[in-house]
Amino acid sequence: MKRDPPPAERQAQEDAGEQKTPLWIFGYGSLVWRPDFEFSSRKVGFIRGYSRRFWQGDTFHRGNEKMPGRVVTLQEDYDACTWGVAYEVRGEQIAASLQYLNMREAVLGGYDTKLVKFHPQDKEADEPILALVYIATPQNPTYLGPASEEDIAAQIIVSSGRSGHNIEYLLRLADFMRYFCPQVEDEHLFSIEEALVSILPCLCQAEEPLVEV
Fold first, then answer.
1. Average pLDDT of the segment spanning 72-96
2. Under 8 Å between Cβ of 114 and 76
């Protein structure tokens, strides 16, 4: 069944079409390393007023119905900012990227859209750039909500979906922050990574076959 685009997505598409201007799409999860749509340029930067949290369940890309994975969404947080990548799409790229992301993020992922102000890292822009972002709210059926870093890490370790293992998702996101935003301390992300690294050796030892002496 075809899904109508959310209001923010529809507005962004109309504005881009009327003014012949580019559309910017902000990614803060897997989009930072795997956009999978054509774009004209990309910028690393941040948005204000949101914290990134592993509170969204994933039963397709990084998990399944029996073992949902954990992926990131945004939580409103007045004093926080979330770093990621904004992609500039132009012309025919706009409709193609929105159609693809509507399926990837909204239909399969449970995310909705919102327009936010994106601040590029390179400081070239005098004003922030209006960008479209996908956010999973507590109202969607696969939302999991808060949990301890240890519990989130334990769930990530045992989850895998059609896009790969949930561990890969966590480690790629942590690598992105270290390489592209070394000045930023993402406590939630790095605490989960630390918990995962501490659990893995114990898990490997437990799975070793017993050898009779």
1. 97
2. no
Instruction: Report the C-alpha gap between 27 and 165 in whole angstroms.
Output: 20
| Separation of alpha carbons 146 and 64, rounded Å | 19
Find the Cα–Cα–Cα–Cα dihedral 1, 36, 105, 73, rounded to 10°: 180
The pTM of the whole model exceeds 0.90: no
Give yes or no: 105 in active site: yes
**Annotated catalytic residue: which of 9, 18, 38, 105?**
105
Average pLDDT for 156-177: 96
CB 103 within 8 A of CB 49: no
Backbone dihedral region for residue 60 (phi beyond 0: left; psi -120 to 50: alpha; all else: beta): alpha
Q: Are 81 and 185 in contact (CB under 8 A)?
A: no
Tokens of 182: 């070394």
